[in-house]
Structure formats: structure tokens, C-alpha cells
Amino acid sequence: MSTPGLDALGTALHATPAPGLEELPDEQLADLALLVTTAEETQRLELHASLDEALGVVPRPVRAAVRRAVGL
């Protein structure tokens, strides 16, 4: 049986939630989904910031080429 909280968690995880999580109350599932989404966004922002910082040591004339090479 699917609930809004379980659906939200599945969306946040980009996968089917592990068996047993359906036992949690819907409010806790929604909170867990929010935590996963927030952690993923924080990780993405920190990764982007660290890549920008790392590119700071690359000479300006070649930064665009390096950005393209690493997929930024």
C-alpha cells in the first residue's frame, strides 16, 4: 500500500524505499523525504563550490576548456 509520505520518500531516493519503511507514520516518512532532499541539495552545492575553488588554481586562459572537460 502506498501513502503520500512513502511516495515522497521514493521520489527523494530515486528508488523504491526499503521494505519495512511503510511501517513508519506518514509524517515521519515525509520528514525523512525532506531530509534526503535537503542533504542531496547541500551535497550538490558543496560539490559545485569545491569544484569552483579547485578551478581557481587553473590558469584563466584554460579554465573554460577544463570546465568542459570535467563536465561543468
From TrEMBL:
What is this protein identified as? Uncharacterized protein
* Organism, scientific name: Nocardioides phosphati
